[in-house]
Write a structure and sequence with these properties.
It is a single chain. Strand 1 and strand 2 form a beta hairpin. This protein is mostly helical. The longest helix is centred in the last third of the chain and has 33 residues. The chain is globular. The protein has two domains: 148 residues, Preprotein translocase SecY subunit (Orthogonal Bundle), CATH 1.10.3370.10; 248 residues, SecY subunit domain (Preprotein translocase SecY subunit, Orthogonal Bundle), CATH 1.10.3370.10. Helix 4 runs antiparallel to helix 5, helix 6 packs across helix 16 and helix 13 packs antiparallel against helix 15. It is built from 17 helices and three strands. The model has no long low-confidence stretch (mean pLDDT 83).
Length: 444
Amino acid sequence: MAEETEKPRSKLYALEPLLRKLPEIAVPKRHVPFKEKFFWTILALVLFFVMAQLPLYGIPRGHAVGELLGQLRYVFASQTGTLMELGIGPIVTAGIIMQLLAGSKIINLDLGDPQDRAIFTSSQKLLAIIMAVFEGCMLVLAGRYGVGLASPAGLFIVAQLTLGGIIVIYLDEIVSKYGFGSGVSLFIAGGVAMTVFWQTFNLSTGVLPLFIRDVRAGESILSAFFSPGPANMMGVVGVLLIFLAVVYLESVRVEVPVTFAKYGGMRGRYPIKFLYTSNIPVILAMTIFANIRLFSSLVHADWLANFVNPPNGIWTVVSDPVRVLIYGILLVSLSIAFGWMWIYMTGMSPKDVAQQLDESGMTIPGYRKDVKVLEKVIGRYLLPATILGSLVVALISLGADILGTPGSGTGILLTVGIIYSLYEQMAREQMAEMFPAVRRLFGG
């Protein structure tokens, strides 16, 4: 019998001595109760809000820190001039780079293997820390804080930005292991929800108080509803419309009939969601836009940043339709491209799904048991769902921006999806607490 050839180890294993020195949040060795998960989730969210209010020390008095990300700051949970200036940017950028490297086999890791998975996770954490340092240096180098990179104040600001980035990395790890969802999702939803609340109900600048004031002053309801400015009542209505649209689309799916050969031909269904790639394509597109804005600030090309900044209300479309059109084309094109790329990079392609079904002993009635046949049939559903789902998510994001929703269109889109996912997870956890047998069914 021929000996199996040993799989070559990834070059990332050369970093193993360094990766072992990185602090790590231990995986829980017991079931984490619902109340404990809720506690850690709320604690992480409170710490995020506190960091978002702590200003960076070392900025010269009187220096105004300009807005770098614009509307994109909501997507990255960024707060200008604070410890949360970088937001989740380093984590998201590191995650994208590592997924691309793994999917294209450049780093030769099998994410199904526990050792390879551990190396991948630790390497991603190290890269996120490096990205925090790099992005901090770039912000100071671009002159955003009025100090030079080589000055003591500049180095201290970089250190603060890096510290903020590292804290966010470990808060994300705590939430992922001991809380609900992930820290990245939680911080996006928390930041957007807080923005929506303040922009809607703030007594001096809130949309609702200003709407009531305008109507009481004799202005017609229609003109008050569409009043010029960064936000109006149409934006608030837009939030409700986006919420209903996303909740509905999350439930739309195609169920492919399958049979289980190993269980005597028992029939079942394999669900394929219409939003197959969820909101990932838009997040990736926004990451590209954010890096373009960072680059444009370094070379002082404001015109370039202008084209990748989302519209902020219907009046933006009226005053600058060409810019909105270019932004829309870029967003839709990148979202579809990233959606297509994502399924092939992360094991979600028709070929990968067909192999998973075949290994599980599933077949599609009316077709012979062959992986190639499975791939062809599954592809009829997966590929259109990938393209149409990515297109619809991009159009919802663009439409919400045009309506002027508080917290940006993409921020609202992500937040609704995150809240919907958290609700489902918390409902399952609560059910598992009430009925321990259900926990075993869920694998908890």
